[in-house]
Design brief:
single chain, about 55% helix, 2 domains, binds zinc ion, mainly alpha
Length: about 170
């Protein structure tokens, strides 16, 4: 799913100025209900790209390389859920499995607690963060979920963040 950031479409673009009032922006984003946002694992802001950025040849990770990492992470998950009916990937986990496979240390707990309060996250968003952080750890080939994996997953809840929710 995709949405504009506001009515005029320029909020946060850094290229063109947004002409909307704060009230208009809140009303616009407020049309997407909390329960709907809760059901989406990852929210990211995609900034507008200038033509010259598109045409420069920057060497990042190739699709081939990313594909390799994804296949590896899927293998880890297939092994994790071996013999469990209806469970193939981290996204399929229910509360019981989340408790079993998304164990986080004290530093992670503290981080999550702060994020929950600051962002006013729901229990559903909390579960999503844990599942996404499990996947981020898998992609990094880490057996345990580290605070940096959690903070990355928290970043992917951008629509829960203050500006939009207040
Ligand atoms: Zn605007």
């Amino acid at each position: 799913m995709a949405t504009q950031p506001c009515v005029c479409g320029h909020y946060g673009s850094g290229i063109q100025e947004c002409t909307c009032t704060a009230q208009q922006i809140h009303k616009y984003i407020g049309k997407i209900s909390g329960p709907l946002l809760d059901r989406i694992d990852i929210h990211v802001e995609v900034p507008a790209v200038q033509y010259n950025e598109l045409s420069t040849k920057k060497s990042g990770e190739t699709s081939q390389m990313i594909r390799g990492r994804v296949i590896e992470a899927r293998k880890i998950q297939a092994k994790r859920f071996e013999g469990r009916k209806g469970l193939y990937s981290n996204a399929d986990m229910e509360t019981k499995e989340i408790k079993e496979f998304c164990v986080i240390d004290e530093a992670g707990m503290e981080l999550l607690k702060t994020a929950m309060t600051k962002l006013g996250l729901s229990a559903r968003a909390y579960d999503r963060i844990l599942k996404v952080s499990r996947t981020i750890a898998d992609l990094a080939r880490n057996e345990s979920i580290r605070p940096e994996h959690l903070s990355e997953a928290i970043q992917y809840r951008s629509l829960d963040r203050n500006f939009y929710s207040t």
